[in-house]
C-alpha cells in the first residue's frame, strides 16, 4: 500500500489486519503530523487549546448552534492536505480521514437519534462545476446517516481569499430550499463542512435553518 | 488566428488552460483548428494518463464527479498542473503552424569560443543540419556548455523553428534565462518552472524544467536537455516521457552533461562529443582525498580548522554536507569559532535559499554550508570546496565530480582547492578523482 499523501510505500507487518483491512492509507510520517482533537476543552466550538475563544464569545449568545465538533486541529500539515484536496481537486485524499471521521462522529453525536439528518455546506453552482465535487458532501457520504440538501449557495467570492474581518462582515450566502411538507422540524440536523475557522459559514447556514423552523442544529467539521 | 497558433501550437491542454469562451472554442474545433483526445486510455491491465504517461495503479484516484454524475478515474501524478480526468478530453492545436518569422533573429553574443568549444559547436550545427536524432555532449564542469549550443540554437531559430532547453532543475532555468535573453535579444523567450507565474506563456525559444514539458506535445525541432543525469530526471519515468512527447518527429535532441550515467555510455550508440577542457583552458582542480581516522557526524574535523586557517589564499569556502540535520548541527559550531566571519547554511527546504546563494555569489558570505542542492548548475567565480564525509552514500561519483567542478571557474583565479574528507576511500571517491584526471589528460593531448 502507498501513502495517499506522500506516495511512499507503507510496509505493514503481517497480522490479522492484512486480511481484514482496516488501515488508513497514510504512512507513519504523515500520520504523526495530523493533530487529532481528543478531548475538546471548549464545549461550544470543539477546540482543545482554549477554554473560551473570541469566536465563541461572539457566536454563543446567538444560540443558533447547539455545538460544533471537529476531528483535527487545522495545522500546517492539514492545511496542505486540504488545499490539495479542494483546490487541486485530488478527491481521493478523503480516504485519509475515513476512520477517524467516522469514529469521532460516533463519539460526539452518539446521543442523537438514528434518523438525524446531515446537511453538507453547499458550493455555488459555478464553483461546483469547476471543482466537480463538493468536499462537504464527500465527507457526509462517509457517515451512516441520511444526507439532505436543505441549503443552496449563491455566487460569491472565495472564502479562503478573504481576511478575517471581511469574512465576519459578509452577508449570508445561503438560501433555504426545503419544502414545508416533507420536512420534520423536530429532527436534529448536523451541518457538515471541511473547516471551521471563524465559524461564519456554519452560523450563516445555521441561521437559515433555524429561521425556517428547525429546532436543533449541530455541526461537525474535519478541521478546527 | 496567428495569435492562437502561437499560443496553442504544440501544447496538450486541459479545458481550463485554454482561455477562450466555450462558443469560440467550439467554433475553432468545428473549423478543424483544435482536436480532442481522451485523457486517460486503457492499457492491458491498467490505464495511462495521456499527459504524464503515468501507469502506476496507486497514482490513479476515483472521483465521483458532479459534472457527469459518474465515478471515474483521474490522474494523481500530474495533479499539480491541473486535474486530468477521464470525462474531459485533452485539446491540441492542429491549425496552421505558428509563424515566428515576424521578428528578426539577431544573435548578439559577442564572446569567443576556444578551439575545443568551436569544434563541439561545429559538431552541433552539423548534427542539426543533417537531422541527427541524438547527440551527447560530454563536457567538463565549467567548459561553457551553454556557449557551445548557442550557434546551433541560432541556426534553428533562423529557420523559424522552435527550440527548447529543458533541465530537471528550476535553479538552472533561472540562471540560464538572462544569458539567453542577452544572446538573443529580439527572439521571444520564456522560462517555465513551477511558481514562475509564466507557465501558460509560449515563445519560440523555451527554457523549461522537464516537469513543465508535460504540457507540450509535438512542439520542438531542437531539444536540449541540460544536466540530464540530475535528480529526478531518471528517478521519475514521466520526465523522459515528457521530453520525448514534446519533440517533433525528426527533431534533434542534444544531451549536455559533465557526468553521463554509466548506462548512457555503455548501452547507447549515441554519438558523443567530448569537451575535456574548461573555457579558460586551465585544467580542472584535482580533489585531494584526506583520510581521517573517523569522520565525525556532528563535529568538525581538526584538520579542517588547520586547513581553513593556514590557506595561502583566502577564498570563499563552499562546504558540502551529507544531510540537512548535520548542516544544522555544524553551523553553530563554526559560527562560534569564527565569530567575525559571515557564515550561513542552505538546504532544499530553506525558504531563504535563493537569497543566501545570491549573497554568497556577491561575496557577502565567507563560508556557505550546503547539502547536495548546490552540486551543479551554479557558478561562483573563485571558491574552495570541501566535502565532509565524502564517503556518505549521497555523494556518488557524479555528485563528487560535479562538486569538484564548482572550484576554479574564474579566468582570473582558475585554481581552487577541493578537499574530500573521508574515513575510508569509497569507489565513488576513487572513480571521481580518476575521471577528473582522465579529462585533464584528454585536454592536454588535445592541445598538443
How would you summarize what this structure contains?
The complex is a heterodimer of chains A (224) and B (448). Chain A is 30% helix and 14% strand.
Topology:
The complex is a heterodimer of chains A (224) and B (448).
Chain A: H1 16-19, H2 28-31, H3 54-59, E1 68-72, H4 76-86, H5 98-108, E2 117-120, H6 125-131, H7 135-140, E3 146-147, E4 151-153, H8 164-168, E5 174-176, E6 189-195, H9 200-212, E7 217-223
Chain B: H1 2-8, E1 12-13, H2 22-30, E2 34-37, E3 40-43, E4 46-49, E5 60-65, E6 70-75, E7 90-93, H3 115-129, E8 134-139, H4 145-158, E9 163-167, H5 170-183, E10 189-192, E11 205-209, E12 220-226, H6 238-246, E13 247-257, H7 262-267, E14 272-275, E15 288-291, H8 302-310, E16 316-320, H9 324-337, E17 343-346, H10 353-361, E18 367-370, E19 383-387, H11 397-404, E20 418-422, H12 427-447
Parallel strand pairs in B: 8-13, 8-14, 9-11, 9-12, 10-11, 12-13, 15-20, 16-18, 16-19, 17-18, 19-20
Antiparallel strand pairs in B: 1-7, 2-7, 3-4, 5-6
Structural overview:
The complex is a heterodimer of chains A (224) and B (448). The two termini of chain A are 29 Å apart. The model of chain A has no long low-confidence stretch (mean pLDDT 86). Chain A is built from nine helices and seven strands; from the N terminus they run H-H-H-E-H-H-E-H-H-E-E-H-E-E-H-E. The radius of gyration of chain A is 18 Å and the shape is globular. Chain A has two domains: 1-32, no CATH class; 35-223, no CATH class. Chain A is α/β, with parallel strands linked by helices. Chain B has three domains: 2-93, no CATH class; 115-275, 3-Layer(aba) Sandwich (Rossmann fold); 288-447, 3-Layer(aba) Sandwich (Rossmann fold). In chain B, 30% of the residues lie in helices and 22% in strands. Chain B contains twelve helices and 20 strands. Chain B has helices spanning 2-8, 22-30, 115-129, 145-158, 170-183, 238-246, 262-267, 302-310, 324-337, 353-361, 397-404, 427-447; strands spanning 12-13, 34-37, 40-43, 46-49, 60-65, 70-75, 90-93, 134-139, 163-167, 189-192, 205-209, 220-226, 247-257, 272-275, 288-291, 316-320, 343-346, 367-370, 383-387, 418-422. In chain B, the strands form five sheets. In chain B, strands 10-11-9-12-13-8-14 form a seven-stranded parallel sheet. The longest helix of chain B is centred in the C-terminal third of the chain and has 21 residues, at 427-447. Chain B is globular. The interface between A and B is medium-sized, with 16 and 16 residues.
